[in-house]
Amino acid sequence: MPAVTANGKELKTETIPCSLETFLREQGLMPKSVVVELNGNAIPPSEFADHLVKDGDRMEIVKIVAGG
To answer: Where do the structural domains in the chain lie, given as residue ranges?
Structure first.
């Protein structure tokens, strides 16, 4: 089964390859509420639909929190 590593944890999923936006939604995350580094490259939310998540990819996902 295909797998990616997100925040140090291996996630096995049959839905990849898919867009980064689709992957985030399937993980229960709103794309505009996170910052993503995919394979060492920072991806702006405006480009999530254009980037493909593939088997073996590594990412860091950080939730944006508002407040003071």
So the answer is: 3-63
Mean predicted confidence (pLDDT) in 49-60 = 97
Cβ neighbours of residue 67 closer than 8 Å, sequence gap 6 or more:
none
Taking the CA of residue 3 as centre, how many other CA atoms within 13 Å lie in the half-sphere pointing to its CB? 7
What is the pLDDT averaged over residues 7-34? 94
- pTM of this structure: 0.89
Nearest-angstrom CA–CA distance, 14 and 62: 23
Say what the pLDDT of residue 33 is. Answer: 92
Decide if pLDDT at 26 tops 80.
yes
**57 neighbors 4 (Cβ within 8 angstroms):** yes
Q: In CATH, what is the architecture of 3-63?
A: Roll (3.10)
> What H or E segment, with its residue span, contains residue 22?
helix 20-26
